[in-house]
Amino acid sequence: MVGVVVLVLGLGAFGWVGYQLFGTNVVSQRAFSAEKNGLRAQWQRESTPPNAKASAKSKAKSKATASAKVATAPGAAIGLLRVPAFGAGYEVPILNGTDLDTLSRGVGHYSATALPGQIGNFAVAGHRVTHGQPFAKLLELDKGDEVVVETKTAIYTYVVDAAPRDLTVKASASWVLDAVPGKPKEAPTQALLTLTTCQDLFHSPDRSVGFAHLASTKNKG
Known about the structure:
Elements: H1 2-47, H2 56-72, E1 77-82, E2 92-96, H3 100-103, E3 107-109, E4 120-125, E5 146-150, E6 154-162, E7 168-170, E8 191-198, E9 206-219
Parallel strand pairs: 2-3, 4-8
Antiparallel strand pairs: 1-2, 1-5, 3-4, 5-6, 6-9, 7-9, 8-9
């Protein structure tokens, strides 16, 4: 009986590890695709000319209100992230929030930080392994590499200033999320991007952190 129990427990543990390493990736990749498709469909709907009978002022107000609600809603998709160094096909959705459910559907935006393109620090987090592992190659980024963020209205290109593999901090090191990282009392004067992920392949108390600055903005439409 003891042998049977040990065998069952061993198989269960093996199955759990297998699901975490492979099964969650399959589920999350499907979620990534659904979020990207849904976001593009939303952008298309919102760009469709509204009813001509509505006043221009009311149209603009309604559009701004709707956009603000989407941008701040927990778990809502706010943009798309592309990193040319990761390959031409690399594109993941950016969602508002960094809870476990949100991070299983894309890259998470620290909701207390700036939005894409804004003056301040736009900070995101993603898994290196499991749950779609969107940041599996993050530690391969070099200074000078580009990170592209697309929103409904613009495409922002950031350039890496500090490679993620060069900085490791504790998960509690909130200074990396400051509007001016490490200078909480200083008012920001430029748009920054902070990229965070687990330093180790599996769950870790340490975080690898990279910094970038906004190099160019291309307005859409």
